[in-house]
């Protein structure tokens, strides 16, 4: 092994070897275990959310593979209709062209060309993360096989009466000219105004005042609503109002949607441009009046003066005219939530358009699609982790609306519907199929619908379309390679677990359940693990405009300051934002970002993966896990350097857990390429108590890790492995092994060397799902010493706790010994006693067991703690001034005379106590300021409270230490 761990030198080497080995493919043996990768956009690059999510999935796949499962990690990418089309349209804009200049066919060819050139970016980045995915089965949502599945589903549902075409209100992006899903809309808080407008009754004798943030939409008002129990306005219900600026007459209606406590209690109803108003209009049979064109200009349904105006231009004109007419009662500032398109930044306009819908709300739709999806969770076929997310899922399905599945784009799955010259609709997988199933004779030629399907429609088929459904026989890619075969691969349905974010429970999770249940009769997955959202170290949402985003590859490889600044500000067009981001980056990363390697990044994600909704990613913590990797590396070098001679035949030696009969047996030999010892030669249990203690602790650790894997507590299993590896193996067992390794007992030395090797190899297997690269590199130095013939760690069995024999008696002895050493070391540190100075040790009180243990461990205590041989103080005898630690009923005493200047040390402690008291007062002053507590971010207030807790703990310890000095 090299002297130091250099991640960059080993990662590409091992990933290429793993992929070439075929170990990522299903083994064909064992119980099927499948995970579906939520297909990232083909346009995308790896971000922190991807890296976190994929680390979790890879841990599960590697763990289950080592447990003997027939694993499949099904990967692929999504065609990402709007996002991909926008990228290519932006490229055309640079050439002063639009997609319409090219025409549909040429534009689609251009998109495919871009996909071939750039679409592998994110999958190559996933490889950098070390994912054990079967790349030979990589799919794309517009592959021929997946496209066939999409057409079949659409046609079957249409013929079953579950897909229909209708004129409904949708989120409309006027810049892109398409309907968009709720997920593609951001609600942004903006400063606006609330305008109050007076509407008179037709007879002019009475009036109402309505408040609105969108006065231009009054041109499409069809009613004014009041609460039916609002006694103030009961006289007006049923009366007609004269709509200002238009002259139209509209009724006053009663609807319990109205909040009578808000404003005047009157609400204008504009069904064509507001979702709540649309529902009210439906209840009261009010015909909506659409006043906007698809590019958000006023249409012919408004008075002529406003026609052709942009909606915001029309707003100014309407307000001016209302003021001139004396109908503008009040204008006041108002904060409002504005729906903004993620893709174009245009303000979304609720718009009545002709679209295709999936029926989820009629008696038939609920019975055949919605209810089975609900029952899958309520009946326990699908379990959410954490469980509370099941409520989110069921509440949404209980209140579901029909799904708008059409988009006005060119890139995507074109809707398999055709129209004749009379406007009749014909649906089929192709034109011939549509004609064959026609119920009327087509009039003239057929033309295909121009729209494409919502990207989520094809993504919802992912659990079974990727396995080859609906084709019989093998599905091949463009190179002739088999990527799926439904006949064989349906064993992977349902998959074991879906790892995804809570933001797409509605858009993807529920819809996968709907489609998979309907078309296969099965659930798509057994468990849904909802991963947390990654935020920055202060708990803030990561945003380019804040300058707090992190690129996982920058963490892996490192990046210098100037390239980091340039990269982070490249796409920021507003100078003030760019300056703010640059300032923050220079403050947060004055030396750039150091390279931590993939393993440290993965360990950080694992350690953060709790059941919380968000996790705070701190680079300092990631650097701590880089230190863990270095610690593991150095421990392995220590073990390997101490393998000096083989274990004597017939003497002690531990066997690695997870080895069944027929597996390669373990030897203790340190010579190159040793011959494995037979079971008889390996002999009895480990010789020393330290060996039996570490194996007992290893057994408990493995049992806990398996339990945490089963409950998806990745944070707890990471903590278990970290603490065992760092604290018990590296800090304790390596030290406890030194007396045996350096002693005269050859059998104890050989047994200890063997146990060191066995425990190290077991640690590497247990850590492999979290840190695959470093574990693989070290293991290839360890494996020959044990006579192992596996090519890679992934081929080794998972270490089983039940194959290790615990020795509780030995554990009790070693824990006593550890407590004594810890007490001595703590005193040395607190009293600033030089580490190399040998000091006296006194023991007091205790019982016969303590005395026996002190005698047994005397040499080890002296060697490891740098103390003289322990001396017992007789009961009742005078004791010197000493610092003490308590171990059970025994006191461990370090006489202070001659070791330190008591006066100087007491003075030093006094200064430190005063300093910390001052820090506590500062924090208390801040928290005592009501303005600070009310206005500071919650995380800042929490930090101040935590500082008080930390300072108080230190203060207590220092005061106790001072008292010890008399």
Automatic annotation (TrEMBL):
Residues annotated as domain Valyl-tRNA synthetase tRNA-binding arm: 901-966
- Where does it mainly reside? cytoplasm
Show the GO MF annotations: aminoacyl-tRNA deacylase activity; ATP binding; valine-tRNA ligase activity
Which stretches are tagged as biased composition: Gly residues? 650-661
Record's keyword annotation contains Coiled coil: yes
Q: Which PANTHER family did the record assign?
A: VALINE--TRNA LIGASE, CHLOROPLASTIC_MITOCHONDRIAL 2, VALYL-TRNA SYNTHETASES
Q: What is known of its domains?
A: ValRS has two distinct active sites: one for aminoacylation and one for editing. The misactivated threonine is translocated from the active site to the editing site.
The identity of this protein, by name, is Valine--tRNA ligase
User: From which organism does this entry originate?
Assistant: Dyella jiangningensis
């Amino acid at each position: 092994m090299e002297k130091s761990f250099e991640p960059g030198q080993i990662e590409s080497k091992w990933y290429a070897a793993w992929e070439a080995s075929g170990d990522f493919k299903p083994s064909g043996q064992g119980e099927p275990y499948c995970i579906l990768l939520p297909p990232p956009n083909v346009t995308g690059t790896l971000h922190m959310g991807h890296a976190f999510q994929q680390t979790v999935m890879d841990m599960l796949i590697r763990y289950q593979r080592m447990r003997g499962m027939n694993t499949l990690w099904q990967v692929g990418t999504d065609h990402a209709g709007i996002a991909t089309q926008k990228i290519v349209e932006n490229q055309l804009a640079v050439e002063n062209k639009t997609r319409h200049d090219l025409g549909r066919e040429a534009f689609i060819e251009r998109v495919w060309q871009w996909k071939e050139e750039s679409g592998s970016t994110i999958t190559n980045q996933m490889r950098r993360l070390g994912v054990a995915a079967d790349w030979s089965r990589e799919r794309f949502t517009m592959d021929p096989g997946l496209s066939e599945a999409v057409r079949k589903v659409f046609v079957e549902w249409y013929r079953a009466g579950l897909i229909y075409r209708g004129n409904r209100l949708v989120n409309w992006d006027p810049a892109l000219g398409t309907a968009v899903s709720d997920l593609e809309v951001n609600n942004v808080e903006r400063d606006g105004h609330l305008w109050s407008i007076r509407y008179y009754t037709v007879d002019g004798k009475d009036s109402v005042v309505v408040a609105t943030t969108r006065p231009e939409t009054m041109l499409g008002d069809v009613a004014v609503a009041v609460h039916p129990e609002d006694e103030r306005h009961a006289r007006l219900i049923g009366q007609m109002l004269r709509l200002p600026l238009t002259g139209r007459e509209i009724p006053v209606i009663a609807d319990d949607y109205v909040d009578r406590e808000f404003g005047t209690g009157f609400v204008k109803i504009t069904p064509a441009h507001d979702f709540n108003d649309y529902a009210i209009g439906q209840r009261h049979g009010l015909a909506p009046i659409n006043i906007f064109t698809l590019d958000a200009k006023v249409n012919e349904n408004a008075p002529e003066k406003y026609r052709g105006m942009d909606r915001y231009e029309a707003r100014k004109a309407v307000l001016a005219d209302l003021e001139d007419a004396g109908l503008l009662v009040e204008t006041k500032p108002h904060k409002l939530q504005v729906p903004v398109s993620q893709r174009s930044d245009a303000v979304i306009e609720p718009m009545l358009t002709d679209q295709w819908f999936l029926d989820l709300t009629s008696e038939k739709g609920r019975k055949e699609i919605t209810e089975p999806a609900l029952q899958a969770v309520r009946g326990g076929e699908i379990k959410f982790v954490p469980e509370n997310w099941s409520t989110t899922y069921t509440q949404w399905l209980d209140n579901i609306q029909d799904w708008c599945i059409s988009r006005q784009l060119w890139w995507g799955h074109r809707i398999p519907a055709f129209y004749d010259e009379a406007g009749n609709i014909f649906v089929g997988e192709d034109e011939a199929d549509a004609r064959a199933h026609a119920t009327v004779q087509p009039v003239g030629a057929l033309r295909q619908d121009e729209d494409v399907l919502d990207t989520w429609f094809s993504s919802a088929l992912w659990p079974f379309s990727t396995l080859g459904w609906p084709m019989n026989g093998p599905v091949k890619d463009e190179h002739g390679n088999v990527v799926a075969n439904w006949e064989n691969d349906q064993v992977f349905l349902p998959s074991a677990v879906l790892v995804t974010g809570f933001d797409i429970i509605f858009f993807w999770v529920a819809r996968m359940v709907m489609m998979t249940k309907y078309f296969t009769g099965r659930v798509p997955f057994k468990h849904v693990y909802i991963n947390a959202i990654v935020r920055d170290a202060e708990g803030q949402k990561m945003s380019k405009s804040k300058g707090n985003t992190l690129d996982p590859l920058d963490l892996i490889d490192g990046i210098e300051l100037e390239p980091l600044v340039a990269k982070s500000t490249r796409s920021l067009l507003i100078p003030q934002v760019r300056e703010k981001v640059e300032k923050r980056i220079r403050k947060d990363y004055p030396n750039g970002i150091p390279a931590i390697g993939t393993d440290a990044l993965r360990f950080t994600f694992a350690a953060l993966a709790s059941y919380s909704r968000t996790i705070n990613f701190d680079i300092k913590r990631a650097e701590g896990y880089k230190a863990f990797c270095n610690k593991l590396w150095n421990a392995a070098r220590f073990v390997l350097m101490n393998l000096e001679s083989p274990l004597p035949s017939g003497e002690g030696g531990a066997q690695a857990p997870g080895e069944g009969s027929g597996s390669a047996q373990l030897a203790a030999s340190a010579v190159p390429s040793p011959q494995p010892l037979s079971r008889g030669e390996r002999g009895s249990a480990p010789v020393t108590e330290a060996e039996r203690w570490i194996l007992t602790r290893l057994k408990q650790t493995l049992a806990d890790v398996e339990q945490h894997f089963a409950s998806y507590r990745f944070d707890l299993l990471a903590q278990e492995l970290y603490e065992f590896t760092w604290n018990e193996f590296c800090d304790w067992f390596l030290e406890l092994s030194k007396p045996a390794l350096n002693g005269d007992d050859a059998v104890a030395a050989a047994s200890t060397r063997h146990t060191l090797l066995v425990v190290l190899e077991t640690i590497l297997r247990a850590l492999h799902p979290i840190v695959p690269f470093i574990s693989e590199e070290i293991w290839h130095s360890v494996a020959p010493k044990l006579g192992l013939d596996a090519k890679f760690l992934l081929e080794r069995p998972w270490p089983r706790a039940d194959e290790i024999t615990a020795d509780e008696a030995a554990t009790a002895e070693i824990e006593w010994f550890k407590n004594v050493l810890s007490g001595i070391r703590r005193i040395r540190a607190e009293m600033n006693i030089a580490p190399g100075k040998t000091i006296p040790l006194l023991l007091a009180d205790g019982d016969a067991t303590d005395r026996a243990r002190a005698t047994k461990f005397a040499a080890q205590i002296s060697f490891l703690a740098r103390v003289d041989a322990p001396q017992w103080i007789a009961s009742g005898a005078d004791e010197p001034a000493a610092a003490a630690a308590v171990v059970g009923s025994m006191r461990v005493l370090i006489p202070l005379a001659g070791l330190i200047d008591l006066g100087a040390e007491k003075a030093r402690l006094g200064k430190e106590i005063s300093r910390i008291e001052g820090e506590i007062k500062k924090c208390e002053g801040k928290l005592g300021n009501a303005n600070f507590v009310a206005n500071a971010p919650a995380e800042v207030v929490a930090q101040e409270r935590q500082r008080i807790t930390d300072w108080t703990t230190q203060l207590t310890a220092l005061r106790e230490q001072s008292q010890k000095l008399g």
